[in-house]
Amino acid sequence: MNIVDKALVIAREAHKTQFRKWGNQEPYIVHPEWCVQKAKDIGCDIIEQCAMALHDLIEDQAIPTNTVELWELRIITDLEPIGEIVLKLVWELTNISDTKEWMEKNPNPKRSEKWSVNLAHIRIISDTAKRC
Questions:
Q1: What is the pLDDT of residues 61-115, one digit of tens each?
Q2: Full 3-state SS string of 105-121
Q3: What is the spatial distance between Cα 24 and Cα 127, in angstroms, rounded to a whole number?
Q4: Alpha-carbon span 16 to 110, nearest angstrom
Q5: CB neighbours (10 Å) of residue 25?
Q6: pTM for this entry
Q7: How far is residue 52 from each of residues 10, 32, 42, 49, 62, measured CA to CA in Å?
Q8: C-alpha to C-alpha distance for 88 and 26, rounded to whole angstroms
Q9: How far apart are CA 13 and CA 8, in angstroms?
C-alpha cells in the first residue's frame, strides 16, 4: 500500500460516520477522496496528496471528540517518514475558528466572525497549503 493510500485509510476511519450536509447526503469521505484525485490531476506531490486526504480530520473529528493527540500520532506514525510534514500541512488547512483555543476565546461566535478569521488565516498560510 502506498503512502497516499495509507492517508486515505486514516481519512476513511475518521469520517466513517459522517455524511454530507447538503445535496444527496453522500458519505463525507467522497470529498477527501475527490480532493486527493484533484491533487494528483494537477501534479501535487505525495505530501500534498496526503494532506488533502486528511485536511478535514482535525476540525471534523479530532477537535469535537477531544482526540487531537491520538489523530496526530496516527498521522505521524502511519505516514512515516513524511507524517510530521503532512501533519503540519493538515494543521495549516484546519479552520482556525474550529480550534479549541479560538473557541475558548470566542464563545458563541457569529458565522461572519468565523469566516473572517478563517479567511485571514488563509492569507498567511504557506504557498503549499494555498495550493491544496
A1: 999 899 999 999 999 999 999 999 999 999 999 999 999 899 999 999 999 999 9
A2: HCCCCCHHHHHHHHHHH
A3: 33
A4: 29
A5: 9
A6: 0.91
A7: 12, 6, 13, 5, 16
A8: 29
A9: 9
SS (H, E, C) 42-83: CCCCHHHHHHHHHCCHHHHHHCCCCCHHHHHHHHHHHCCCCH
Residues making up the chain, counted from first to last:
132
Cα–Cα distance for residue pair 8/32, rounded to 1 Å: 8
φ, ψ of residue 22 to 5 degrees: the values are -115, 165
Distance of alpha carbon 9 from alpha carbon 37, whole angstroms: 15
Q: Which three cell numbers stand for residue 95?
A: 479552520
The three three-digit cell numbers of residue 42, written as one number = 494537477
Residue type, 17: T
pLDDT in tens, 38-49: 999 999 999 999
Cα distances (Å, whole numbers) of residue 37 to 6, 19, 69, 80, 111? 15, 19, 28, 21, 30
In the block, cell 494555498 appears at 130
